[in-house]
Amino acid sequence: MDGMTHASDRRAGIGKAAISAKGGMHLGSRIVLDDEFLSCRSSVRRFRRGEVIAGAGVLIDMFARVHTGVVSASTMLPDGREFIVEIIPKSGLIGELEVLRRQTLSLEYRAASNCELHFFEGRLLRDMYASDPCFREKVFSRALARISELELRIIANAASSLQSRLASTLLRLSAVYGKDAANSGDELIISQNDLAATLPASREKVNQCLRRLREGKIIDGGQGKIRILNRKALEACANGAVSVK
């Protein structure tokens, strides 16, 4: 992956692959590996918030595991707007499917917060995929889950108001941030530009909805941070049961 600064190396123990057993509609619905599986040398690289980790169209033979922080995966819409397709949490992988398929990256990956990533050679994943039928099945099931999740998001976005979509997005992001033991999930570190790109919607309209949620004491915060104050009320907004004006 290009655009990355090498920091240090580490050696992990030998073990077997593991897939996250948690269900539900979360943005981080990806293949997740235990540290024990990563059996050979890895590069540890750190990125500041906003830095590009890897650009779309790049052919890679490495995959990365998010050790700390979160990473966004985005593409450009036909009208030139950015669309953040996925927010990848701690323990999520980057480039695993492209490595298996020997394809170029279709999305741009950027540090959504200060983060640390561990990079591994693609052959590790391919060897495991070729030798372990159970692992192949889990990879296939995870890929289908991610496709299904994106389809449901698109359908929900088409049928919901912007306020409902925004509330749903904040709850999904809360689940992502909550994967880190250092974060309860109530505080989200995301800029208004990135939030608008996640929906996607214009920044002005997103700001209006955020202001209404703040006035209703449902959320608080500023300067790239959002704190959820009333989760039940936010869930009601997401379900369309309550409209904050």
TrEMBL record:
Q: Name one Pfam family in it.
A: cNMP_binding
Task: Give the matching InterPro entries.
Answer: cNMP-bd_dom, cNMP-bd_dom_sf, Env_Response_Regulators, HTH_CRP, RmlC-like_jellyroll, WH_DNA-bd_sf
**Cell inner membrane listed as a keyword:** no
Query: Which Gene Ontology molecular-function terms are recorded?
Result: DNA binding; DNA-binding transcription factor activity
Q: Which residues form the Cyclic nucleotide-binding domain?
A: 45-146
Tell me yes or no: is Transcription among this UniProt entry's keywords. Answer: yes
The residues covered by the HTH crp-type domain are 160-232
Residue ranges that the Swiss-Prot or TrEMBL entry lists as coiled coil: none
A GO cellular component annotated for this chain's UniProt record is: cytosol
**Which UniProt keywords are present, listed alphabetically?**
DNA-binding, Transcription, Transcription regulation
Name of the protein: Crp/Fnr family transcriptional regulator
**Which lineage do the record's taxonomy fields give for this organism?**
Bacteria, Pseudomonadati, Pseudomonadota, Alphaproteobacteria, Hyphomicrobiales
